Amino acid sequence: MNIKRIAELAGVSVATVSRVVNHPERVRDKTREHVLSVMEEYNFTPNWFARSLNLESSKTIALLIPSIETSYFQQIISGVETVAGNKGYAVLFGQTSNDPGREAEFVDMMVNRKVDGMIQVNSRLNGKETMASQNVELPRVHIGKNRIRANDTLCYVDIEEGARRMTQHLIELGYNTIMALFDEMNEDASEQINIGIHRALRDANQPISFSSVQAESSVRGGYLTIQRLIQNKYFPEAIVTASDLQAIGAMKAARDANINIPDDMALVSLTDSAVCSVLSPALTALELPSKKLGMAAARMLIDQIEDTLPYVDMPHDLILQPKLKIRESCGNTQDIYEWFD
């Protein structure tokens, strides 16, 4: 079944069927309803790609994201989907796995599929890896700090400030030896976390010993890292993990070695999730507004696509702030923080 056959069955021209699909307001009510009834009877759905060529719009946006396995990225996806759906846009996904080559392939693929715009999360590109995007002025928003083109819009959580506040909290609790577990696959976030931690260390009125180690952002990564520390008989007073998954693995390794958290070692995470508050002990963490981040990025992208705001052609940053959720794992003993969690 195609548009020509529908025209024959409805007794109208192909041009009329095309107008019913693409510009229904230009067709008389009676004719439009008749054509639509024939389309419904024969279960005919217009080819979206051909239709997008006619309308110069596909009503689709691309979302390129490193992973769909963590709560942080899942919430970004949820936020993008919420706004896109309300605006009548479909979302095409590409999981880049933090691989610049794979990301470049997805960019070319999405450009060739005529998407109206693109959101790139934690992009690893520098603008030279993909020829398609260089030749097309495609509206795009970056979630993260990597501005590929001069007029790209950025949207991100201030993880540097979050890391500073978390470290300051640990110092105020009296910890003098702090170790950070970075995400070995996310250099940009690790750099921001490191800067934030060192800001807090400089502001401290006492000498603080700080060290860091790269680890896989997973339960396994956290478990193996803490297990190695225990084998080397090195026990920092407090550990800061980049993700809640690392923290869960660290907690398991400590429990297996009869190390009590927080009495023997404090543990905090720079990513919060629903499970953090039900762990034993409950995990102190940074609540990242990741769903709001996805919603904001989608709104900004659709503003560019539809040219509805005067600033869309200007590069600008939207920065969201994380929230410190103080629970038991850091050694906190003030119930008021738990009451208002």
Verbal overview:
Helix content is 44%, strand content 17%. The protein has 341 residues and is of the alpha/beta class. It folds into three domains: 3-46, no CATH class; 60-158 and 291-322, 3-Layer(aba) Sandwich (Rossmann fold); 159-288 and 324-339, Response regulator (Rossmann fold, 3-Layer(aba) Sandwich), CATH 3.40.50. The strands form two sheets. The protein has a six-stranded parallel beta sheet, with helices on both faces. A six-stranded mixed beta sheet has the order 7-6-8-9-10-12, with helices on both faces. Strand 6 (177-183), helix 9 (187-203) and strand 7 (209-215) form a beta-alpha-beta unit.
Strand-helix topology:
Blueprint (H helix, E strand, L loop, with lengths): L2 H8 L3 H9 L6 H13 L6 H8 L4 E6 L5 H16 L3 E6 L4 H13 L4 E5 L9 H5 L4 E4 L9 E5 L1 H14 L4 E7 L3 H17 L5 E7 L3 H13 L6 E4 L2 H13 L9 E4 L14 E4 L2 H17 L10 E4 L2 E3 L9 H5 L2
Parallel strand pairs: 1-2, 1-3, 3-4, 4-5, 5-11, 6-7, 6-8, 8-9, 9-10
Antiparallel strand pairs: 10-12
Helix pairs in contact: 1-2, 1-3, 5-12, 8-9, 10-11
Assembly state: single chain
Helix-strand pattern, N to C? Answer: HHHHEHEHEHEEHEHEHEHEEHEEH
The number of domains: 3
List how many beta strands DSSP finds.
Answer: 12
| Major β-sheet profile | 6 strands, parallel
Distance between the termini: 58 Å
User: Which structural class best describes the helix and strand composition?
Assistant: alpha/beta
Average pLDDT reading: 88
CATH architecture of the largest domain: 3-Layer(aba) Sandwich
Q: Portion of residues in helices?
A: 40-55%
CATH homologous superfamily heading of the largest domain: Response regulator
Query: What does the radius of gyration come to?
Result: 26 Å
